[in-house]
Every structure is written in C-alpha cells, then in structure tokens.
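Full entry
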Amino acid sequence: MGGLGSGARRSTHIGNVEEMLALDIRALRRLGVVSPGECVIDTVHWSIGGLSTASARLRVDLSDIERGGVMTIIGDMIDGAITQSVAIEMAPSPFGGHRCYFICPFTARRCEVLYYAGDRFGSREAQRLSYAVQGMNEVSRARRRSAKLRSRLCGSGSMPRPRGRNRIDMVSRLRMAEFEAKTLYLDRLRVLAGRSGSPRMPGERL
C-alpha cells in the first residue's frame, strides 16, 4: 500500500521561462513573420547580453486561412541543429480578422509561446517550466515589476518605446511600482529589526 499522495502525478519544474529561448506568435505576427494568407520565410536570432546565442530559419505557411498552417523551424541552437514542424491554428477574432495559435507538439493544446528545452520547442506546461516570480517574495516581485516597466519605457526587442499619453501613463505606473517596492522593503526591515530586538532598523546610523 502506498503512502500519502502515492499514485499522484508528480510535477517537477526543470527551469524558468525567463531562462529559455522562446518563439512568441504575437511578436512574430507584429514582425510580419506570421501573416494569415501568406507564406513567409525569415530568420530569428536570440541573444543574451547583446551576444548572439542561437538562430533559426522559420518558414510559416498560412496560405489557407480556413485550414490553418504550419511553421517549420530549421535552426542552429545552443546544443546543436534542429528541424521541427509546429502546426498553427487560426481562430476568428471577435473584432475581425483571425487570431493565431501554436499547437503544442507534445500536448496538442493551443499556446502562444513555445520554449526550447530538451532539443525541441514546446509549451510551458509540456516543457515543465515555471515563472521566476513564483519563487520570489513580495519585495522581489515588486522590484521585478519596476524593472519591467523601466525596460518597456526604454524600448526592448520588438516593443517600441511608448509615446504620448501611453508614455505618461507608464511613467506614472513606474513611480507607483518603485514606491511600492521601497515601502515593502522598509516594512521588511522593520520586521527584521523587531525580531532582533534592536531599537533601530538594520543599517540605520546612530
């Protein structure tokens, strides 16, 4: 007879999505690589710290909108060459046009991002990946929000720098996020000071 929890499926995460090479169908569509009604061939590059780490040639055939299409990946990845085909499904959008989804090669479920792990691209669930924020405390999560907003203000990757009213709103959100991060940090210091029995906060000068 098994012990407590025996027979339950174990879920072991092998890494964080932030550490993996990824293909985001939304970003590819903004770049024109994924284009309903067309067959497009293009090259994508991944880099870390400005240094190229991998590249792949994508052939995305969406000539038949009703039947969907397929993306063929031929790349030179970190651990070797890869050739893989991934189905793409198109669903009518309530605002007109079509919304595109990858079909995960492992789970056959819709997803918008494919991650490279174990020599193949697959969905986050199939690759057993988690988000870095899941292992963070409140202070780390608040600081991460601030860093992401700061990065978006500067423009990164396929996301251009916001302008006009959008930039004003984002600056306001950044200030609020930085204030929240600082407040949480000071609260945490007060708790630590209380536990130590010290009449002053750690790092406070006499």
Observations:
- The chain is about 25% helix and 30% strand.
- Residues 15-130 form one domain.
